[in-house]
Amino acid sequence: MSSIMVSRIRQKQIAQLIASGNRLDGRGLTDYREIKMEPGIIEKAEGSALVYIGKTEVLTGVKIETGEPFSDRPNEGVLTVNSEFVPLASPEFEAGPPGEESIELARVVDRGIRESKAIELEKMCILPGKKVFVVFVDVYVLNHDGNLIDTAALAALAALLNTKMFNYEVKDDEVKILPGFTHLPVVNHPISVTFAEINGKLVVDPGLDEEEVMDARLTVTFEKNGKVCAMQKSGRGTFTNEQILEAVKIGQQKAEEIRKKVV
Amino acid sequence: MNQSTIKLIDENGIRKDGRKLDELRPIKITVGVLSNADGSAYIEQGKNKILAAVYGPREVHPRHLALPDRALLRCRYHMAPFSVEERKPPAPSRRELELSKVIREALEPTIFLEQYPRTSIDLFVEVLQADGGTRCAGAIVASLALADAGIPMRDLVVACASGKVDGQIVLDLNDIEDKEGEADVPVAFAPNLNTITLLQMDGLLTIEEFEKALNLAIEGCRRIHALQREALKSKYVAVKEEAEVE
Amino acid sequence: MPIFYENKQLVTPGDLLAEGDYSADSNTYKEGNKIYASRLGLVYYEEKRVSVVALNAFYIPLTSDLVIGKIAEVNLHGWTVDINAPYSALLQASDVLNKFKPQRDDLSRIFDVGDLILAKIMTYDRTRDPILTVREPGLGKINRGQIVKITPTKIPRVIGKKGSMINMLKKETGCKIVVGQNGLVLVDGGRPEDEGLAIVAIHKIEQEAHTSGLTDRVTEMIRKEREAKK
Q1: N or C: which end of chain B has fewer CB within 10 A?
Q2: What are the residues of chain A with a beta carbon less than 8 Å away from any beta carbon of chain B?
Q3: Of the partner residues B117, B154, B243, the one whose CB lies closest to the CB of residue C14
Q4: Does the structure show a pLDDT above 70 at A162?
Q5: Which of B100, B102, B203 sits opposite A115 (nearest CB)?
Q6: Nearest-CA neighbor of B196 among A112, A192, A242?
Q7: pTM for this model (two decimals)
Q8: Which chains touch A (3 or more CB pairs under 8 A)?
Q9: How many domains does one find in chain A?
Q10: Is the ipTM of this complex over 0.95?
Q11: pLDDT of C210
Q12: Which string of DSSP letters, residue by residue, matches C117-172?
């Protein structure tokens, strides 16, 4: 992503407001923008959800196919998360293969789902060592107004929660599709909380203008019991030990609040 | 992360490779190992063998990427196909792209990029043999390569991972511990400025466990920093000693 | 007001050198009232000033520096010159030709790609590449001799206090020696053996720049080599 030249006046304005505990849109330092969710919006996908955090909009679709398991996990289904920064979402996005930000987002969302064991992959085995269910989670960014990670992670979770797999039976090593569907076994609900560090202060759910002036970013993902299951610092700034621990404590609370909206 | 039935720590708190919970793997660092690169460094940490090199500051190619007010820092983390058990295809994987970004961002805050507008500083981290914790070892030598190249910096960057293995918080996980353990927390740290420049986590940790792991990783960083300084100085100390004997 | 190292001690980037009312000179920086090293080198404390003599650093152009460059490109209005720095330098045709006509004058006849020149930095500011001039006497194309490349921070050592080192080198090797601030040194002697000696001596100075008694040791080395060759 190219650097966006933000005017110095704007930078100062944002930093000053934050120093006094306020933000450009009137939010508190630990407030999220309005979160809206529309699950099941794409009927042709096995699962889907459209999520808004403020004006940031991410659509996630889940497709389930069958395929070969990984050689070191022969009895487990496969989870793969991909992200696309669709060019229409921002003047800064270009068509082409995923750039580093897109790849990072996909991997952080993946980590949240995988490390929290949200999907019982052991239950997704059809023929051990030969055939398993492959869960494709495709994150599609439609409008970028800051904090793509949290929006994408929430959309992925919401999509997984309404994902249906076809019923099947195995006869003579052949997979036969039966009528009806089963819900994807989702047993944990990872929620990611992203912070921006601006002039030494932490703000939750940075908007685009805040992201343009932030020094560094920290995403912390919590599973349903409040344990940390993923973390990612990014950006060219730094954090102190104390800031990290402060963020983790605030994050745990926020994750609980947000989880109530999905589950 | 996979909880398996392999016991990685015995009843006496000794790990499979004989280390204590807070013990680092043996480390050997050399600076200035490549003649063409402007700066370079090499590390062996346990079975990790990682080489870093810097070219720059130099003119940016392609030209349109040049930044008007600072140097462009680019980083490529890459694993050699023979570096791991199962051959890794040479094309950059998504993991390598993520780690390239993460290592670059670990070093960026320490470099005086504003002093060299319209140039690029290109960092290359090559993993010749991998055994867990390669991004940390990579950051260690990348920072030394920058110092070797004479690029001015606010601080060195040192890195170390901690994690949870068999229910215990341990320091410097090797490959098996990383794969079979319950959590992995890589940390990069600027020791004189006392700030964290890289932080990731995967696995499951309570907040208290995470705090313990973070502090342990930082302690590991401080120990490795002493080795970094020695490696940087040793090239010149040897020459000085020779000269004095003459 | 504390200082944390002794004079001429080896320090690494990020080392806290001093705290208090000091000024941060070369290769150091100040944050609050603390002064840190920004490069690997030897720290010097001079009254209220803290500086580090870097062991390795690349050349950053300074106006009026004498440099040795290599022609990298012949362009329409001049030449692009590699001066061993992060930035290429420009030599404009108008600097060499009084009435320059791009259509008529073939610039490669004057300086072609690969030619070495001795030039001075005429102007340099951070927004553009440095501009060279060859107008002064003694500047221009280098036709003979060999070039030694050393790290630019060691150049002052090759010159020595009041030229003591370079004068000794010239005398002992019988070579003409021209030092470019950009780390390149031209050695031009009557015989290749003399040039070879000078080159070895210059590399030795680079390696041992941070030690004392260097001028004497280099003199001795050159004389020993000469004896051995007789």
Answers
A1: C
A2: 3, 71, 98, 100-101, 103-104, 106-107, 111, 114-116, 218, 223, 226-241, 244-245, 248-249, 252
A3: B154
A4: yes
A5: B203
A6: A242
A7: 0.90
A8: B
A9: 1
A10: no
A11: 75
A12: EEEEEEE--TTS--EEE--STT-EEE-SSEEEE--GGGHHHHH-GGGHHHHHHHHH
Token digits for B124? 């290359």
Asked if residue A1 belongs to a domain, the reply is no
- Whether A107 sits inside 8 A of B108 (CB atoms) is no
**Closest chain B CA to residue A109:** B202
Q: Which of residues 118-177 of C touch B (CB under 8 A)?
A: 126-127, 151, 153
- Write the residue in C12, C38, C58 that is nearest to B232 by C-beta: C12
The residue range of the domain holding A27 is: 17-262
| pLDDT tens-digit readout, A49-70 | 999 999 999 999 999 999 999 9
pLDDT digits (tens, 9 = 90+) for B2-61: 445 678 888 888 999 999 999 999 999 999 999 889 999 999 999 999 999 999 999 998
Q: Which residue of B has its CA nearest to A222?
A: B204
What CATH number does residue A258 fall under? 3.30.230.70
In sequence order, which residues have a C-beta less than 8 Å from that of residue A43 and are 6 or more positions away? none
Please check whether residue A9 lies inside any domain of the structure: no
**Subunit contact A232:B199, Cβ cutoff 8 A:** yes
8 Å CB contact between B148 and B54:
yes
Q: Which domains, from first to last, does chain C contain?
A: 10-54 (2.40.50.100), 66-142 (2.40.50.140), 146-229 (3.30.1370.10)
**Fold observed for domain B27-245:** Ribosomal Protein S5; domain 2 (3.30.230)
Residue whose C-alpha is closest to residue B106's, from B224, B211, B187:
B187
Question: Are B156 and C13 within 8 A, CB to CB?
Answer: yes
- By the CB < 8 Å criterion, does B205 face chain A? yes
Q: Which residues of B touch C29 (CB under 8 A)?
A: 112, 152, 154
Instruction: Give chains near C: 3+ CB pairs under 8 A.
Output: B
Q: What is the Cα A175 distance to its own chain's centre?
A: 32
Residue A2 lies in a domain: no
Domain ranges in chain B are: 27-245
Which amino acid is present at B8?
L
In chain A, the percentage of residues whose pLDDT exceeds 90 is 78
Average pLDDT, chain B: 93
Of B109, B202, B203, the CB nearest to A237: B109
Judge: B200–A240 Cβ closer than 8 Å, yes or no: no
C54, C44 contact by CB (below 8 A): no
Predicted confidence at residue B237, as pLDDT, reads 75
Which of C14, C56, C88 is closest, CB to CB, to B191? Answer: C14
